[in-house]
Amino acid sequence: MHEDERELRKRLAQHAKRYEVVRKLHDVPPHVTHEVRVDGKRAVCKRATSDEGNPTMEARAMRFLETNASVPVPRILAVGDDYFVAEWCDDVPAERTLDRERARTMGAGMATLHDETAFEATGFLRDDGGKLALDARETWHETVCAFLADLRDFLEPLGYDDVASDALTFVREHPDLFDGAGDPVLCHGNYLPEHVGTDGDEVTRVIDFEHALAAPGEYDYWRTVLPLFADSNRSDEALAESFRAGYESVRSLPDEFDRRRKAYWTVNTVSYFRSLFLQRQRTGQEAARTASFFRKYVYDTIDSLRDER
Q1: Residue 270 within a domain
Q2: Which of 169, 260, 270, 291 lies 20 to 30 Å from 201 when distance is taken between CA atoms?
């Protein structure tokens, strides 16, 4: 029996008299996900494979939404220190396909998530005795600085901490950079097509809240638009317009929303360094080329922001 399966069985035994490990679904650091059966029910178990993973917080976020919002999330069956078990959902998306109708539905779904959740401050989410808790910062600017400082520390042994450090210095030097961003809500942090099931104009399921954060809604918006629609070709522009129209059909975007776009793109691109090296889906020269692209993008965007000020 493989070590992964032995560790998984130990956790399932704490919650079920009968359990079975069916198959491995995903194994991308810092998590591994299996299809399981617990007491005859088909389910999913997501487990952290390092300290960088936090499925317990993710489970608390989904339970919070199940209680406080209409956002359709998997029902959590069990939670442990480094894992959760959730019901099996047939409507979880299997691919990244996107058209204008689906982009609009996703935009409206994100706006609904934001419209139905609220926090007293921005900050980082965690589990606290079985409930979702907030490690708050006084301002959104301070939260962004803490986020970049954490990225800098992660990237230091990899030799890319200078990018995060320079982005952090720029943000610290301009405390007004995110003024007017809006009130804090629960942001998904990775609201991509493979994490959002849709059927016509309805969102049927939202999964993978591992990057959830208490932040202004526009943070979540740009976290989605950058990887999906940054390409300048016409089809992507049409999809971006559809996503925005869907969002604004539910919830207004704050004043000067577009002005802050480059600031978010800078922060988000720095975070992609972490994903690149943590998930290890690209290695060797391919990873180096991607990191070089990210580096250039960050510095070019900072230079552009400086020129505009």
Answers
A1: yes
A2: 260
Closest C-alpha among 287, 291, 289 to residue 271 = 291
C-alpha angle 263/265/269, rounded to 5°? Answer: 125
Q: Taking the complete model, does pTM exceed 0.90, yes or no?
A: yes
- What is the per-residue pLDDT across 6-58, written as a single tens digit (0 to 9) for each? 889 999 999 988 999 999 999 999 999 999 999 999 999 999 999 999 999 99
User: Which token pair is 257?
Assistant: 């929303």
pLDDT band at 104; cut points 50, 70, 90: very high
Tell me, yes or no, whether 224 and 192 share the same domain: yes
Q: Tokens 């559809």 map to which residue?
A: 242
Ordered alpha helix ranges (H), 156-233? 161-173, 217-229
User: Which one, of 144, 129, 145, 271, lies nearest residue 211 by Cα?
Assistant: 271
- 291: how many CB neighbours lie within 10 A of its CB? 20
Query: Left (φ > 0), alpha (ψ -120 to 50) or beta: where does 231 sit?
Result: beta
| Distance between CA atoms of residues 9 and 20, nearest Å | 8
Please give the residue range of the domain that contains residue 143. 100-308
